[in-house]
Amino acid sequence: MRFSQLFAPTLREVSADVELASHRLLLRAGYIRQLAAGVYTFMPLGWRVLNNVSDIIREEMDRAGAQELLMPAIHPQELWAESGREATMHDVLLGFKDRKGGQFYLGPTHEEVITDLVRRGVRSYRDLPLNLYQIQMKFRDEPRPRGGLIRAREFLMKDAYSFDRDEAGLDATYNAMYDTYVRIFQRCGLPITAVDASGGAIGGKETKEFMLLADAGEDSILLCPKCGYAANQEIADFRLIVATPAEEPQPMAKVDTPDAHTVQQVCDFLHTMPERLVKTLIYMADGKPVAALIRGDRELNEGRFRVLLGAARLEMATPEQIQQYTGGPVGFSGPVGLTIPMYGDEELRGMVNFVAGANAGDTHLVNVNWTDVQGNITWARLRFAVAGDVCEKCGEPFIERKGVELGHIFKLRYAISEPLQATFTDEEGAEKLIIMGCYGIGVSRILAAVAEVSHDDDGLIWPTSIAPYHVHLIVANAGDEVQRGLAEDVYSRLRDAGIEVLYDDRAERAGIKFKDADLIGVPLQIVVGKVAGEGRMEFRERATKQAEMLHVDEIVQHVRARLA
Ligand SMILES: [Zn+2]
Q1: CA proximity to 518, closest of 462, 448, 445, 449
Q2: Among residues 121, 197, 286, 397, which is most buried (max CB within 10 A)?
Q3: What is the CATH number of the domain that holds 537?
Q4: From the CA of 297, how far away is ligand 1's center (Å)?
Q5: How many A from CA of 230 to the centre of ligand 1?
Q6: What is the domain-level CATH number for residue 342?
């Protein structure tokens, strides 16, 4: 490809709200362009990388016996109602009505569509197992699209769905997909940690997420340095250590806390610490009010709370609802006198003489003890694990890292096949539900992830396996006939050898071309310059910037050796 013809407008500056290095570099180097919040164009360079990633995925999926197909992005609403997920995934569904008033959704995932296909196409045990996948744009109405391709509203995904006769079949498919994923990420040059995870709104149990540990990540990962246990914060198991109260309970008292709405404001005002305070969070679970009680310095695990309640939807109560159900304004809720169902994090049971809201404006209670609370409390594990909590398996304290989820594998079992009644006839003629798994990879997110872990101050550094081109060839002075002649010769020799070359033939200054080459990040660079008359040129590696002089007759062999 001649650079003079390439559509890759580079940018010197990007807007100040671009936080991540990957986002900034992909914009600057002309790989992506934003159309709307979380909605991107993949420019020719970006699309080439995505296609390379897709090719690796296809090779590995096909090797594992999976078959590629392509399903529609437009889904009839009835199918989502049938699975019950129109309610549970309501918040992320993007949709539209057609001219006849029919409701459709843009597919955020395809369990419904593929299970509908399979229930119509599979009759007997002889038709199973099946593992079907596609690579396709997905749509999710993310509340906070951020980080460029890390959390987009339209994104390229590989999604696979397996259909087996029984548990043993599902286990075999799931394990094969695990190995396949390890190979895919290795080939993309990504160091990946597989962690235990929650099925989330998709449902299902026994789930692994393939995480890139990076500060850019939105997920918190807890790692046990001793036994190797690794889990998403959403699901991490830890040993509960309840301190034995070392104080005698004191009589409860009401205190004025003017304008102290947050935990920190209350603590500052009362000269106490967040771990001596009980936070009371009011939620609406399928439209009914509930309270979650949690220590002042902890975070509620909403996913776990929703599962505990068995609710399809869980939303924070509005200020009006809080006033209605607690009698007080936001920021002053507390368990004393509360009549709605209460759920307490089990860690709280050991607390004495704590601080809580008084369900009245500008007022808190001090020296509260559980004997002061009349209502019934259901005790459960409601908070996230954090660094310092100890591993359930071995007792070692966890360390916490941020992670970007690049892939997941789920044992869905019957979560979708049961509501959709996807069945088969077994050897004895009995009708049985098909057991399912699903397996996703964020293809466009991989583009961002590689950019995030593989760059320097000058720009991107692609691994050869997914780089948009293998070689970035530069003619230092395009106006010099000798240089130009040699560069054209090298360009055709490399192309004849099947090597993908980006050839900067522009009449720009050499310094500008070098800067663009480093920004774009093709792994090998060849500069035809002053010694062109001797048939020699500079060969450079983008990652190390190590350079050597080579003769034109050595060049193809040298590039081949580096690519191998
Ligand atoms: Zn451990």
Answers
A1: 462
A2: 197
A3: 3.40.50.800
A4: 24
A5: 9
A6: 3.90.960.10
pLDDT confidence bin for 313, thresholds 50/70/90? confident
Say which CATH number the domain at 107 has: 3.30.930.10
Per-residue pLDDT tens digits for 381-401 = 999 999 989 998 999 999 999
CA of 228 to the centre of ligand 1 (A): 6
Residue 300 tokens read as: 């509620």
Contact assessment for residue 282 and residue 333, using Cβ atoms and an 8 Å cutoff: yes
Can you give the length of the chain in residues?
Answer: 564
For CA atoms 410, 416, 418, 424, give the dihedral sign.
negative
In a domain, residue 390? The reply is no
388: CA distance to ligand 1 center in Å?
A: 12
Token digits of residue 292 = 């979650």
Cα-to-centroid distance, 408 and ligand 1 (Å):
22
Q: Which residues hold their Cβ within 5 A of ligand 1, which is an ion?
A: 224, 226-227, 229, 391, 393-394, 396
Among 391, 421, 451, residue at a domain's last position: 451
Strands (E), 43-142: 67-68, 74-76, 94-97, 103-106, 130-139
d(CA 130, CA 122): 10
Given pLDDT bands bounded at 50, 70 and 90, which one contains residue 206?
Answer: confident
Give residue 132's identity as a one-letter amino acid code. L
Cα(185) to centroid(ligand 1), Å: 25
Which pair of tokens denotes residue 187? 């080939």
Ligand 1 centre distance from Cα of residue 243 (Å): 22
Q: Where are the alpha helices (DSSP H) in 139-279?
A: 167-187, 263-270
φ, ψ dihedrals at 513, nearest 5°: -65, -40
Query: Which domain does 554 fall in, by range?
Result: 469-563
pLDDT in tens, 520-529: 999 999 999 9
Q: Tell me the whole-structure pTM to 2 decimals.
A: 0.88
Same domain for 142 and 215, yes or no, is yes
Residue 512 is assigned to a structural domain of this protein? yes
Spatial separation of the C-alpha atoms in residues 308 and 301, rounded to whole Å: 11
